[in-house]
Design a protein that fits this description.
Bound molecules: 3,4-dihydroxyphenylalanine
Oligomer: single chain
Strand order of the largest sheet: 1-4-5-9-8-7-6
Structural class: alpha+beta
Radius of gyration: 42 Å
Shape: rod-shaped
C-alpha cells in the first residue's frame, strides 16, 4: 500500500516535470507501459497471500486509473501549449512577397515561326515538314540545279556522304510534296537548314519557311497579293512590298522581295541603309522544268514559291543585330521576348 502511494506521487512528479508530449509519453511508458512499474506491481501479486490478492489487485487498478487520468490531463495541457507555441512561432505572414518562379518564354525564332504559320494557315496553307538530311536529287537536281550548275556554289553545302547532305534549303520539300500530291497544292514548309557560312548575319544552322502554291491560273499577281498580306501581318499595317528581278534556278521569273522599312516607314535610315526597303525573301513562279520533274503538266498548271529565313525576319522584327544571339541562349536576352 505504501509502495503504491510513493509510486503515485513519484509518477505525478515525473509527469509534471515533462515539458513536451514526447517526454511525457516516455514517463507514461515507464509507469503504464507493458514493462512499466504498474506491470511490475501486478507481477509481484503472485507473492502475496491468496486472500489478500483481490484487495491488492483492486488497489493497483485504482492506482493505474488515477495515473491514467493524470497523464491524460497532462497530455491535454501539453498539446494545448504546443499548439499555442506553433500558432505563435510558425505564423505565416501572408503580406510578405511570394517566391516568384521564373517563367520560361518562347524563343524568338519559335515565336516568329508560329506567327508565320498563323498568318499563312489563315490563308489556307497546310504544313508539310521534310527531312533535314536530303539527297542531292531533292535539294538540287529536281530543283533544276544539276551537278554542274553554277548555282550550287551559291550555297556552301555540308555533305554527309557523296549522295546525302544536310539540306541547304527548305525548297527540297516542294519536290517531295509535288511528287505525292496533285494540284491544287498550297503548302508551307518550315524547318532547319544548313550551310557552311558564319558571320554576324549568317549561321551554319538556321531556319527557313518555304511556301508553294500550284493550281490552274496562278500568276505573279497572286504571289504579290499574298506577300502584301504577309508583310502587313508580320511587320506593320502600313507595310508595302516590292519585287525586284533576281535569279533562282527553280523559279522563272525569279524575284527578290523587299518590305518597306518598318523602322523609318520608308524614308531611309541606318537599318535599311537609306533605301527605305529591306530584303526579306526570295520567290518566283515555279520553273516549268521543276513542275515537269514532279510529273505536273506545266501547260495546265502554274505556281509560285517563296522561301524566307526565319532568323532574318526575327532580327528585323525585334531589332537584333547579331544572329549569334539567337543560338547563345543567354536568358537575359531571351527573357526580353515576354508577351
Ligand atoms: N531556296 C532559296 C534560298 O535558300 C530561297 C527561295 C527563293 C525559295 C525562291 C523559293 C523561291 O521557293 O521561289 O536562298
Amino acid at each position: 500500500m505504501e509502495e503504491n502511494e510513493t509510486l503515485l506521487s513519484e509518477a505525478k512528479k515525473d509527469a509534471d516535470a515533462a515539458e513536451t508530449s514526447r517526454a511525457l509519453y516516455e514517463v507514461k511508458m515507464t509507469y503504464l507501459g507493458r514493462t512499466g512499474k504498474i506491470s511490475a506491481l501486478l507481477q509481484k501479486m503472485k507473492d502475496a497471500a491468496k486472500e489478500d490478492r483481490p484487495a491488492l489487485g483492486k488497489k493497483i487498478n485504482d492506482l493505474r486509473m488515477k495515473l491514467e487520468a493524470h497523464f491524460e490531463a497532462l497530455e491535454e495541457k501539453i498539446k494545448q501549449r504546443e499548439l499555442e507555441y506553433k500558432l505563435k512561432h510558425e505564423r505565416i505572414d501572408v503580406t510578405m512577397p511570394g517566391k516568384r518562379k521564373r517563367e520560361g518564354v518562347l524563343h524568338p525564332v519559335t515565336r516568329v515561326k508560329n506567327e508565320l504559320i498563323d498568318v499563312f494557315a489563315g490563308m489556307g496553307f497546310e504544313i508539310y515538314e521534310g527531312p533535314e538530311i536530303e539527297n542531292e536529287y531533292y535539294n538540287f537536281t529536281a530543283l533544276n540545279t544539276p551537278a554542274d550548275h553554277p548555282a550550287r556554289d551559291m550555297q556552301d553545302t555540308f555533305y554527309v556522304t557523296d549522295e546525302f547532305l544536310l539540306r541547304t534549303q527548305t525548297s527540297a520539300a516542294q519536290i517531295r510534296v509535288m511528287e505525292k500530291k496533285k494540284p491544287p497544292i498550297k503548302i508551307l514548309s518550315p524547318g532547319r537548314v544548313f550551310r557552311s557560312d558564319d558571320d554576324a548575319t549568317h549561321s551554319p544552322m538556321f531556319h527557313q519557311m518555304e511556301g508553294l502554291v500550284v493550281d490552274k491560273g496562278i500568276t505573279l499577281c497572286d504571289l504579290q497579293g499574298m506577300l502584301d498580306e504577309f508583310a502587313r501581318s508580320v511587320f506593320s499595317d502600313s507595310s508595302k512590298t516590292r519585287l525586284r528581278p533576281s535569279y533562282f534556278p527553280f523559279t522563272e521569273p525569279s524575284v527578290e522581295v523587299d518590305v518597306s522599312c518598318a523602322s523609318c516607314g520608308g524614308k531611309g535610315c541606318s537599318l535599311c541603309k537609306g533605301t527605305g526597303w529591306i530584303e526579306v525573301l526570295g520567290a518566283g513562279m515555279v520553273n516549268r522544268r521543276v513542275l515537269e520533274n514532279c510529273g505536273v503538266d506545266p501547260d495546265v498548271y502554274t505556281g509560285f514559291a517563296f522561301g524566307m529565313g526565319i532568323e532574318r525576319i526575327a532580327m528585323l522584327k525585334y531589332g537584333i543585330n547579331n544572329i549569334k544571339l539567337l543560338t547563345e541562349n543567354d536568358v537575359r536576352f531571351l527573357e526580353q521576348f515576354k508577351d
